[in-house]
Design a protein that fits this description.
heterodimer; A: 11-stranded mixed β-sheet; 21 strands; 43% strand; B: mainly beta; Immunoglobulin-like; Maltoporin, Chain A; 2 domains; 5 helices; globular
Chain lengths: 355, 798
């Protein structure tokens, strides 16, 4: 989507005629420049049950070939202004978590993250106030189909929107995220030489978890304070089946700092260096190096209020046959595969699952 | 001031040294210079007394006075677009002679691009002034068949653009809003149609274009870099005619003629685009794009007597640009499409009173209004964002020519500005909140005096002094910020409200101007210039090029006026009877209070712009060389420019610094530019032109590193403008077929065939950084007009 916007943004202005569009964008290899690897912090505490995760990594040269190293063996501590604190446990390289029944976010409290790296440098996040999120009032869809360029086919889908009501006080900032659970029966899949699939069934009920990791969908009430936020686009459900599409929509109340940070991240990812793009500049976030202020650090540790709703997208009105995934041949009497719980798959029934 | 004094002393010494012997009887030859065909008086004709090397210029009504000791002389009359004319006189008494000059359209010899009178570049006093006649602009291969005034300026040394199709232009290290663009004396705040691809001047009504980039005369002021003076031609007072043209982008139709012969004449010309069909050929995501414009220019001239001339110029230009996305609106509001509408409305009433041979008084009332509107149609989120500028001006200029050696000029000007930054109105069912930013109001007052003084045959000086001031007036609320912090909404300590009409802030000062020409031999001169220009109104935007909706802002308590000081020095040489011209100029410019923006500045709806703007120091310097061939079947020129522009924005507070307070190249810093134009005209009805242009790429900001946040690679930017996009070069070609002008026919028509970007170079328009797992590249290049672009235009005149 970003790519598309970027193209429309530039091309829409630039190429006055369709004839010009061909060959408008070409690959380009810039000179390389670099910066000493700086710490990146990602994570947030919410008013939903934990555990909460903090990821630590390092910046790398801006190149497809470079690697962002993970920051291991750091001491990460989360504390609130009511005197509660908890040291996070490194569950895998660079990933730090609170305990399942550990600290829990409460609206109205302030949260701060402290990091001591293995090299002995001390980093801190600026304290963040956790604000409760207003409820999602309504979730609804609109069917839309558009031509696939260069073909006679049309792509169908349902745009999912929400309505909510902004509190009367100004200074509310939002971010929306969604999670889709796709029920699966085949837990392992391999491609055969002829291009068809063979696989093994799941031992239990199982769902694949889908999210949009790179969608940064934020808004502020600066333009609509105290009014309804209406027709906020959340995602587009594809026509991959005529069965209902299960969706969890999360509305997050974030701080002004977090909003500015995410907005700048979104702008930077979408920046096309064009004449009408603002001069790019990264909002550094709320992480500072306490031991040496000249050391750069990036990222944001947020305190977020969350309200959630489950929703089924009715896809029975789709036209023609859906774009089904290719069939998977499961040999009879083959063993089953355990549905492993991960960020991509779960054997646990989603919160609002009914079918 | 000290410099002025020293120079005048020096000048006096010269006068003493070469004072001519007193001759007892001197006589004058006087008369009018007129166009041979139309009988219209021609202003600005250069008259040279051959062998005596004395020069004169005709006044606004074509009147001239040549005073010489008794004897026989040959006078040479020259002017842009006319054949030179020689007149042999025997001066024994007061002579009255009417001189008719013929159009040079049928000549094979043609002066190209800056087609000034052959030796004007050497003889005139001003430095860094280029004049282009519309005929020479027409010789430049056009883009999509559109003859374009601003695009043709880009061939001049010292003029650059940030990109192909970018609105505005940059002159000697100045931003686009530092150019005062005048269309028959009325300022034009947005000189672009279609978001920047074409300029708003209808080529059918333009007489000539003058760009002052070095020695700006004291009569001009208000912008820090340059003055672009576009003059509309005088309506034909003799006969009616109809002209027009059909092109790929726009179609033109114009009419002119006398209502009362020789007394009242009228001109109207319209231009409109019908290019929506181009988008219908485009891919689906562009089909919603709509882009149309029109403009209408009218001029009425009333000349009740030789002494009084009254002209009324009217101009309207409208653009509609609809994009099927909200990506450019800069508003955090969901929208399925964004529409830009912008409109310029100008009116100028001018009264020229030719009091006598020595005195001329010109008074104008000028109204200029620019309105821009950004809107989104979606009902729940519909909004309409309006902004505008109202410029109302009255000015008067008095010219006094006591004798051959002095031409005095003095004038007064008062401008009343009203700037409406942005007003957002929600649609009827919309949830968007209304916003109404406070209007900015001010008077800009100026007075000047100037003398063009021929010290002796070798030295001429143009000395001017201008005083300008800006008086900000209420209603207004002025914030006070805490002294020990950056200017932010959070650091406001108090706010003072002023009633309507109260002048709450004044700024201003003197602007000395000086040009000096020293002829060092036949066809050779050295010129020097100094000028100071103050700018009180600016367009604030942190994008590389301004959008039509970008906000204008008056200088005030916090935004200090930009002050540019420029020193220039040049050497000019003509040889082979002015067939070959060569010149070199160097300049150094310092800009105080140069403007840039904080990282991540949000300007459109900022209640207090001072929290987003940062000011510092600008420095520009460069060298411009020009070699031109004016005569023969092949004519043309080559211009090379070396130019650098740096900004330094420092502050005690890190958020108000740019690049940690170190000097960095401005967005429009393009060190090397080479332009060449060659025209071959073997017969009177056919010509062929080739145009080549090369320039260094503009600076861009490249990410220093990447972070992985949320699974997405995020570029990390540290310093601005440290890298450049690849160099730009392009070759254009055009052929013009005209009817043989030697066969006198009432109806004339011509065909222009042109190819833009002949060798189809994919020049970089922008570079964007994106890591795509399917590619090994770290960045992508966007090119526009990435192919050879042919076009055909038909022009006619009945």
């Amino acid at each position: 989507m970003n790519q598309l916007i970027a193209f429309v943004r530039q091309v829409g202005l630039a190429c006055l005629s369709g004839v010009l569009l061909a060959g408008c964008v070409t690959e380009y290899q810039p000179d390389s420049i670099s910066l000493p690897p700086a710490l990146i912090v990602e994570g947030q505490i919410t008013d939903q049950p934990g555990p909460y995760t903090v990821r630590l990594s390092r910046t790398a040269d801006y190149s497809i070939r470079s690697v962002n190293l993970l920051e291991e063996k750091a001491t990460v501590t989360l504390a609130d202004n009511a005197g509660n604190r908890e040291t996070l446990i490194e569950t895998s390289a660079g990933v730090y978590q609170t305990r399942t029944n550990g600290l829990r976010g409460v609206a109205g409290r302030q949260y701060k993250l402290t990091i001591q790296t293995r090299a002995g440098l001390q980093f801190e996040s600026q304290p963040e106030l956790l604000t409760a999120a207003p409820p999602i009032l309504n979730v609804y869809t609109e069917y839309r189909n558009e031509a696939i360029p260069g073909t006679a086919n049309r792509r169908q889908g349902w745009d999912v929107y929400i309505d909510t009501k902004d509190p009367a006080t100004p200074g509310n900032f939002y971010r929306w995220e969604w999670t889709h659970y796709e029920p699966i029966s085949v837990c392992q899949r391999t491609v055969r030489t002829d291009g068809s699939y063979t696989g093994l069934g799941c031992c239990s009920q199982c769902w694949d978890i889908e999210r949009c990791y790179n969608c940064i969908n934020t808004s502020s009430d600066a333009n609509i304070n105290g009014q309804a936020i209406s027709k906020q686009l959340i995602m587009r459900a594809p026509y991959t089946s005529s069965a209902p599409y299960y969706l969890e929509v999360q509305q997050q109340a974030i701080s002004q700092g977090a909003y500015a940070f995410w907005k700048s991240v979104r702008q930077l990812v979408g920046n096309t260096g064009g004449l009408f793009d603002p001069a790019p500049a990264l909002v550094q976030g709320n992480i500072r190096c306490v031991s040496d202020p000249s050391i750069l650090a990036f990222g944001y540790f947020g305190a977020t209020g969350v309200s959630e709703r489950g929703f089924y997208v009715d896809r029975s009105a789709g036209q023609g046959t859906p774009e089904l995934a290719p069939p998977v041949f499961v040999p009879p009497l083959s063993p089953c595969v355990v549905c492993e719980n991960s960020i991509y798959r779960t054997p646990n029934k989603p919160r609002w699952w009914v079918y | 001031m000290r410099l002025l004094y020293v120079l005048s002393v020096l000048a006096c010494l010269f006068t003493e040294a070469v004072a001519q012997p007193k001759n007892a009887t001197a006589y004058s030859a006087t008369g009018y210079v007129r166009d041979a065909k139309t009988g219209k008086p021609i202003q600005g004709v250069n008259i040279v007394v051959i062998n005596v090397s004395k020069g004169y210029v005709t006044a606004k009504d074509g009147f001239y006075v040549v005073t010489m000791p008794a004897g026989n002389y040959v006078l040479k009359f020259t002017h842009v677009g006319y054949r030179p004319r020689y007149d042999t006189i025997s001066l024994q008494k007061l002579l009255f002679r009417e001189v008719f000059m013929e159009d040079d359209a049928k000549d094979l010899e043609e002066v190209v691009v800056t087609s000034e009178t052959p030796d004007r570049n050497v003889r005139k006093v001003e430095i860094g002034v280029s004049q282009l006649s519309i005929r020479s602009i027409r010789r430049i291969p056009p883009l999509m068949g559109e003859v374009d005034v601003v695009r043709s300026l880009l061939l001049l040394p010292g003029v650059t653009t940030v990109g192909e199709g970018a609105p505005g232009f940059n002159v000697r290290g100045g931003s686009a809003d530092q150019n005062l663009v005048l269309f028959d004396d009325a300022p034009v705040f947005n000189s672009s149609h279609l978001m920047g691809f074409f300029s708003v001047f209808n080529p059918d009504v333009v007489r000539d274009v003058t760009l002052n980039r070095g020695g700006v005369a004291a009569g001009y002021g208000g912008r820090a870099s340059s003055v672009l003076d576009v003059k509309i031609k005088e309506p034909d007072a003799e006969k009616w005619s109809l002209n027009g043209g059909i092109g790929l982008i726009s179609n033109r139709l114009g009419v002119e003629g006398p209502i009362i012969k020789k007394k009242l004449s009228f001109l109207a010309a319209a231009r409109a685009s019908f290019n929506d069909f181009l988008f219908k050929l485009a891919p689906a995501n562009l089909r919603g794009t709509k882009a149309n414009f029109y403009d209408l220019t009218t001029k009425i001239k009333f000349q009740p007597s030789e002494q009084h001339t009254i002209t009324l110029t009217g101009y309207v230009s409208t653009d509609v640009f609809k994009l099927a996305s909200d990506s450019l609106s800069g508003q955090e509001i969901n929208a399925s499409s964004t529409q830009f509408d912008y409109q310029t409305t100008n009116g100028v009433l001018r009264w020229n009173y030719f009091i006598g041979r020595q005195l001329n008084l010109a008074t104008s009332v000028i109204l200029s209004r620019y309105r821009a509107n950004l809107s989104s149609p979606d009902s729940a989120n519909a909004f309409d964002l309006r902004s505008g500028i109202w410029h109302r001006q009255i000015k008067t200029d008095l010219t006094y020519t006591p004798g051959d050696n002095h031409q005095w000029q003095a004038g007064l000007s008062a401008i009343d500005y009203l700037v409406q930054p942005n007003t957002r109105t929600p649609g009827p069912f919309s949830n968007v909140l209304p916003v109404d930013l406070a209007r900015e109001q001010a008077y800009e007052l100026a007075a000047y005096v100037q003398d063009e003084w021929k010290v002796n045959t070798a030295v001429s000086v143009l000395v001017g002094l201008r005083y300008s001031a800006l008086l900000n007036r209420g209603p207004a609320t002025v914030r006070t910020y805490l002294e020990n912090g950056p200017r932010e909404d959070e650091t406001v300590s108090s706010a003072q409200t002023y009633e309507a009409g109260t002048v709450y802030h004044r700024s201003g000062g003197l602007e000395p101007r000086l040009s000096l020409r020293w002829s060092v031999g036949e066809g050779r001169s050295i010129k020097a210039g100094y000028s100071r220009l103050r700018q009180y109104i600016q367009q604030v935007t942190n994008t590389t090029a301004a959008l039509p909706t970008s906000r204008w802002h008056l200088s005030d308590v916090y935004t200090k006026p930009q002050i540019a000081d420029q020193w220039s020095l040049g050497y000019f040489r003509n040889t082979a009877d002015n067939a070959i011209e060569a010149s070199g100029e160097i300049y150094y410019k310092r800009i105080a209070n140069a403007i840039d923006y904080r990282d991540g500045a949000e300007l459109q709806l900022a209640e207090a712009v001072e929290t987003q703007i940062v000011q510092g120091r600008g420095e520009a310097y460069g060298f411009e060389a020009l070699l031109r061939k004016n005569k023969g079947r092949w004519t043309g020129f080559t211009a090379y420019t070396y130019a650098r522009t740096f900004l330094t924005i420092d502050s005690p507070f890190p958020v108000e610094r740019v690049n940690s307070g170190r000097a960095y190249p401005a967005n429009y810093d393009k060190p090397h530019t080479l332009n060449a134009l060659a025209t071959y005209r073997p017969t009177a009805w056919f010509s062929l032109s080739l145009n080549f242009t090369y320039s260094t790429g503009r600076p861009i900001t490249q990410p220093y590193a990447r972070a992985r946040i949320n699974g997405v690679y995020v570029p990390i930017y540290v310093d601005r403008n440290q890298q450049r996009i690849p160099d730009y070069h392009r070759l254009d070609f055009s052929m013009t077929f005209e009817q043989n002008p030697l066969k006198k026919k009432r109806n004339q028509s011509s065909w222009v065939f042109s190819i833009y970007n002949v060798y189809a170079r994919k020049n970089a328009y922008s570079i964007f950084y994106r890591l795509n797992p399917r590619s090994f590249s770290d960045a992508y290049k966007l090119s526009i007009f990435a192919t050879a672009f042919p076009s055909l235009t038909y022009n006619f005149r009945f």
